[in-house]
Amino acid sequence: MLQLLYAPTSPFVRKVMVCAHLLDLVDHIALLDSAAHPIRRDPRIAAHNPLAKVPTLILPDGLALYDSRVICEYLAARAHDTHLFPAAPERWRTLTWQALGDGLLDAALLARYESTARSASEQSAAWRTAQLGKVQAGLQALESLAPALAVSTPSIGEITIGCGLGYLDFRFPEIDWRSEHPQLTRWFTAFMALPAMQLTAPHEA
Q1: b/e for 185-202, b at 16 or more Cβ within 10 A?
Q2: Rounded distance between C-alpha atoms, residue 98 and residue 82, angstroms
Q3: For the sheet containing 2-6, what is the strand order?
Q4: What is the mean pLDDT of residues 84-90?
């Protein structure tokens, strides 16, 4: 049995679990509670991952895999799947889309941490604005990519992008990204209807 250190609000955990659903591996993964935090280290995670971050996947032989990029590729290999991570040359476009989705998520998380994990005296409005500027730039790039994004047979690129947009809806409802990105909105609406996305919606513990 695989063991996954997780948090129900983490978009990177969601990314792993969407892959698990699509690969029919959910029943092979036991979810382990943890309290990942950007400042306070959870020893339950640190015992397996020196960065003390989720997701962290513990294999039956005790080997721990991290981060989401490595875990998702491991799950695809375990399931003998060749679609989530296709062969070259399509592979490079897929991995670049994954990097764009991960980058959008990284910026959104840093913006959130600035206002939730740091004291008011330590917070920088300029830093938060800069991170949200990266989010907006990512959204603009995704708007132009939207017509090429798959729905029913997603790669790791579409999965990561979908989890990124889902995180914005979850943590940044004040960002009305749909109003300026109609093509991306149409894709995301269809993508969100997938059972793998419905079953992994973030929620407070």
Answers
A1: bebbeebeebebbeebeb
A2: 16
A3: 29-33, 2-6, 56-58, 64-65
A4: 97
Whether cis (ω within 30° of 0) applies to the bond prior to 89 is yes
Q: Is 87 exposed, middle or buried (0-12, 13-18, 19+ CB in 10 A)?
A: exposed
Report the predicted TM-score, pTM, of the whole model to 2 decimal places: 0.96
In this prediction, residue 205 has a pLDDT band, given cuts at 50, 70 and 90, of low
139 three-class SS: helix
Residue 117: per-residue pLDDT: 87
Average pLDDT taken over every residue of the chain = 96
CB 2 within 8 A of CB 29: yes
